[in-house]
Amino acid sequence: MTTLPSHSAVAAGDDQLAHAITHEPGRLKRTLKLRHLVFIGLAYMAPLAVFDMFGIVAEETDGHVPLAYLVVMVAVLFTAFSYSRMVRFFPIAGSAYTYAKEAINAHLGFLVGWVATLDYLLLPMINAILSAIYMGAVFPDVPFWVWVLLTIGICTALNLVGVKLAASMNVLLVSIQLVVAVIFVVLTIVNIANGANGATFTATPFFSSDVQVASIAAGAAILALSFLGFDAVSTLAEEAEKPERDIPRAIFIIIGVAGAFFITVTYVMQTLFPDVTLLADIVGASPEIAKYIGGAAFQAIFVGGYMMAVLGCGITQQMSAARLLYAMGRDGALPKRLFGGVNPRTGVPVANVLIVAAIALTALFVDLDQAASMINFGAFIAFTFVNLSVIFVFFRFLKRRTAGAWIGFVVVPAIGVLINLWLWSSLDTISMIIGGIWLAAGIVYLLVKTRGFRAPAPDLTGPINVSMYE
User: Fold this and answer.
1) Which residues have a Cβ under 8 Å from the Cβ of 440 and sit 6 or more positions away?
2) How far is 85 from 416, CA to CA, in rounded Å?
């Protein structure tokens, strides 16, 4: 049974605890302010990634991409609310893995972390593949493997230098992406105003008589990955200067900014091209639209801006994956000697950064369709258990169970659970099979490591700030 700190111990110990975590050798360093967290989250989501999936989702939803984004944004807000609750209790690295481990059960927490790790470990690989695809289109004579190695090499180098530099780089990279996106939207609006392609501003991209709930759910399930940046921010709780305050704020700022951006961009694109099947390449719909609205010159600018997205996204994806492995290694869920250490000078988990880089190199042997099919499964499992963790915190740790507490700690996260299970059930068969195999491998590993669950689970520390809710 977890032992909770007393009110006085929590109140008196906050400053010493923060000081110890900030300055103790071998621990992650608290250097990130709110603006760093927001830009890291936005960079992780790669604002220009909205263009990657537009053609595919437009076909899936029969021309209702903005509606699918609106649905998934509402769904993510429920889960974000639960993340903001949990980070106040557990302002430590690990995200969904840590929350499930601390609030529910250590063995279950490991399995949640194992499933979530699949997403984190493979995203840098997909990022490298996208880099090679886009750059190969501009420089067809350069081999595919050159762009893969260059992308992974730059991202790894910046992560090894330290999280502060990587965060500062993301401010620049996200800014460039936003400028390109704004130009894209303005040019699209000008084309619509001029009647290009017979387009007019209507509410059809959000609602029409032929809307199919199943197709919107399938599109939303794909687009949910666009919002994974807020989850990545929660893994940096031990490197934020004021995690209890700034992580929740960053989460909602990221979702609000990203949601408005995604919906605006896809609305004007869908308005200009309500039927994407008229385009030559549905998968490459966005570059084709860029050329349509601004000519070859803007298409070149568009691709250049996309490469800024690739670089910023790769830095933060590798950063988050390395810190998830660190949290699991530190607690003994993975071999501590390899995964649980950090460089005392830079505060970077060097071994984990290099491991993630090595996995990303599989981009040399895997195509984009194969890689993308592996990602969706773990995200919804992790989101579901974050919501469940809030409910468990309510029944295990809270003493004052007011009507407001019931709503905030039971009703809202329960709705989040149902929404995530609904979206999870909308995934394609390949994603289910690959995700199921990965989960089964995690169960086998855990059975062996714990000798059939007979070995004791890692010690639980309990919520650090439980007093604020009692």
Assistant:
1) none
2) 13
Residue 27: domain span = 7-469
Supply the DSSP symbol for 407.
Answer: I
Please provide the size of the chain in residues: 470
Identity at 421, one-letter amino acid code: L
CA-closest candidate to residue 258, choices 33, 38, 35: 38
Q: 27: part of which helix (H) or strand (E)? A: none
In the prediction, which pLDDT does 389 show? 94
Residue 389 sits in a domain of what CATH number? 1.20.1740.10
Angstrom distance (rounded) from CA 145 to CA 217: 36
Express each pLDDT in 265-285 by its tens digit.
999 999 998 888 777 666 567
pLDDT of residue 456: 62
15 contact partners, CB below 8 Å, separation of at least 6: none
Q: Establish if 271 belongs to a structural domain.
A: yes
Q: What is the DSSP string of 391-403?
A: HHHHHHH-S---H
Is residue 18 packed enough to be buried (19+ CB in 10 Å), middle (13-18) or exposed (0-12)?
A: middle
Q: What is the structure's pLDDT at 152? A: 93
What residues are paired with 240 via a beta bridge? 32
Q: What is the pLDDT of residue 153?
A: 93
Tracing tokens 């387009």 back to the chain, one arrives at: 199
Give domain status of residue 2, yes or no: no
For 12, 51, 64, 264, 274, the CA distances from 204, given in Å and listed in that order, are 57, 20, 8, 14, 9
Q: pLDDT under 50 in the chain at which residues?
A: 1-25, 458-470
In a domain, 318, yes or no: yes
Give the number of C-alpha atoms closer than 13 A to the C-alpha of residue 170, restricted to the C-beta side: 31
Is 1 within the bounds of a domain?
Answer: no
Taking the C-alpha atoms of residue 315 and residue 409, their distance in angstroms, rounded to an integer, is: 34
Closest residue by Cα to residue 343 from 200, 468, 159 = 159
- The first and second tokens of residue 141, run together, are 């004579």
Residue position matching structure tokens 């990203």: 258
Question: Tell me, what's the pLDDT at 264?
Answer: 93
Measured distance between the N- and C-terminal CA atoms of the chain, rounded to whole angstroms:
19
Identify the CA nearest to 109 among candidates 89, 88, 95, 90: 95
pLDDT of residue 270: 92
Indicate the number of domains in the chain.
1
